[in-house]
Amino acid sequence: MAFSFTPSFHKEIDLDGLDQKHYLVTALETARHLQWNIIYTGKNGFIAMTGGGFFSQMQEFRIIINQTSILLSSKNADGRLGDWLKLNEENVDTFIEAFSKVKTSITDEQLEEKLAELAPILESAEDDLLNAPLPSTKQNLLSFIGFFIPQKGYFITPLIIYINLAIFIIMVICGVSFFEPSSKDLLIWGADYGPLTLNHEWWRLISSTFLHNGIFHLAMNMYALIYIGILLEPVLGKLKFAVAYFLSGLVASLASVSYHGYTVSVGASGAIFGMYGVFLSLLTTNVIDKSVRKQLLVSIALFVGFNLLSGTSSGIDNAAHIGGLISGFVIGYLYYPSLTQPDKKGTELVATMLIAFFTLGGCLIAYRMIPNTVGIYEAKMKDFAIKESMALEVMSMPKDTTKEILLSEFKDRGLYYWNENIRLLNAVDSLPLPDVYKERDATLKRYCELRIQSYNLYYKQIEGKQSVSQNTIDSLNKEIASIIDGLNQRSK
């Protein structure tokens, strides 16, 4: 048995007392009984498409009838590189069991009738494609390598893989962790992060789609990309595939920064989900061949649903997945008219460019409409710092300043600006900020309250109408210094 990179299962069995023709008739009836889609019938066997298991994967089932034995084989037919549920082995076992039942139930008259129907095929002079030899190990290796080689009908997908791999390798060479890059490193390389992305660094919406949080994240995304690329790129062509990938990734990043603005987000999964969305929409049209449409629709829908469900766990940006999926679904329907008229190249190009133009325009509007909460907060904090500086100027008044001026400065400048900063902090409390900002604001509010207490004591001390304990002032100043040290430590 030749080794294959495409998951498969083979089994050789006896003719079980039947001649080749009668076995072929019974086997065809068995496949129909199992509701498999027979796509080719030859003199020595047939090929059928099956679907089953939790993920409803598609498999190609072949039966080749020799003079003394039968070779049964099943292999993945939908581009998947794994068969962890052993669905191919299950297909072979299911066929053998069903064949035994059909064999005992079919009559001699029915056999002869079915043989008559097959006569044109059995008597044909054409070669049976099932007689072709099984691929060798070298051929299978070349087939696997082919997933990464640009070729007709599969050109853009390998290029996208190269870009992602190249960026990851360069990052690792520059010192970024191979398994788990830090958020700081990802931000340096262009991760999507609301406070930066919405602060005129719009390019992060694109750069983040080519970054990955470690080798396992990269491998899973590239596997999913290969799978959808094999199925979809031959249908769309290079231009449509590339445009759909780029636009879906952009919309996914916008969705991420809109719903998870304080999360460092990276990965190609949003764009990849977009391509699954494109394929799902096309599977509801006549663009995809009817013989495989239903199986693929169920398979892709369950695959997407399973991954979205998995995305509810922490650390996975489902907003990007959903944003990419929906945008891809819409793009697929927008592509439909040009896909039904493939001969009109000029029309196809214009339609694709119009879709890109209006999608980019919509993204620009959405980008400007997303509130930059952290940007607003930081602007308020700059105002806070200005008021703080003005309030602290009172403490550096010249020694020869008159009592009246000092009292006026403490009251009209110092106490006024500390109270203004408390009002400012109360106002920013209404902003939808992460807890870390809320905690910092609470500390700043406590800081301002202590300053007000301290300034009130200084005021009374200068006024001289009542005694003020210096120990109380020193205690307040000590607590203020402690808060300042704590804030400085957090900012490092």
TrEMBL record:
Protein keywords: Hydrolase, Membrane, Protease, Transmembrane, Transmembrane helix
GO biological process, one term: proteolysis
Enzyme class, broadest EC rank: hydrolase
Residue ranges crossing the lipid bilayer per the database entry: 159-179, 210-232, 265-284, 296-313, 319-337, 349-370
Broad class of the protein's primary localization: membrane
Pfam families, A to Z: Rhomboid
A molecular function GO annotation: peptidase activity
Gene3D superfamilies named among the record's database cross-references: Rhomboid-like
Family from the record: Belongs to the peptidase S54 family.
SUPFAM superfamilies the record matches: Rhomboid-like
Keyword set includes Membrane: yes
Localization per record: Membrane
Chain ranges of the Peptidase S54 rhomboid domain: 200-336
Protein name stated in the entry: Rhomboid family intramembrane serine protease
EC number per UniProt: 3.4.21.-
Membrane topology label: Multi-pass membrane protein
